[in-house]
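Lab notebook, design round three. We kept the backbone fixed and only want residue identities now. Task for the bench partner: fill in a sequence for the structure below.
Input structure tokens:
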């Protein structure tokens, strides 16, 4: 899963933001795009070696982070590892753990939490593969891995690994279907229809 982060690092900040803008339907007013853009800026400014030069950018980042969190309800800290073209489809009550990993081309909807499960293990967080489709209100807790092309149904509570190409629904979530089709999909169209139909 780290491969997507390596690829992201080879792009400039503006190339990453342009990709994200296109992935969000070329609409700069979308809260999801703004949240991801602020995240990209937060990661980028940490690459500036001089603490003196970085300081004003860090102040700006913190202001923008709080603005996005408080206005749109999207909490996406720069310490998370987010791949390319990740789409936050809507806004409100979206919380992403600072140690979470999200692969390329994932889609996340409103009310989603990607967080830790145990207070005594605060650094454990979910790892999402590529093209993971997370339905509205879904919660994924702890050191679980969601495989490439998996779909998480609306309001599901995921406490264990979900295989690649699988669909998981329910509380606690159970795998109801596994398909190889999702693994070869270039985009999210098929997986998106699966989750929203549930």
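Proposed sequence:
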């Amino acid at each position: 899963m780290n491969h997507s982060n390596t690829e992201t690092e080879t792009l400039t900040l503006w190339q990453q933001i342009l990709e994200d803008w296109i992935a969000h339907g070329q609409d700069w007013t979308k809260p999801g795009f703004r949240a991801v853009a602020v995240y990209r800026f937060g990661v980028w400014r940490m690459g500036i070696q001089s603490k003196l030069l970085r300081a004003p950018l860090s102040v700006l980042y913190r202001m923008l982070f709080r603005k996005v969190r408080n206005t749109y309800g999207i909490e996406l800290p720069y310490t998370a590892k987010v791949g390319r073209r990740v789409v936050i489809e809507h806004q409100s009550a979206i919380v992403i753990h600072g140690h979470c990993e999200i692969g390329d081309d994932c889609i996340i909807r409103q009310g989603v939490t990607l967080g830790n499960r145990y207070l005594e293990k605060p650094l454990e967080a979910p790892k999402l593969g590529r093209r993971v489709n997370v339905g509205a209100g879904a919660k994924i807790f702890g050191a679980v891995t969601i495989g490439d092309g998996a779909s998480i149904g609306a309001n599901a509570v995921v406490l264990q690994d979900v295989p690649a190409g699988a669909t998981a629904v329910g509380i606690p979530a159970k795998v109801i279907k596994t398909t190889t089709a999702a693994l070869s999909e270039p985009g999210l169209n098929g997986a998106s229809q699966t989750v929203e139909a549930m």
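Keep this in mind before ordering anything: The chain has a mean pLDDT of 89.
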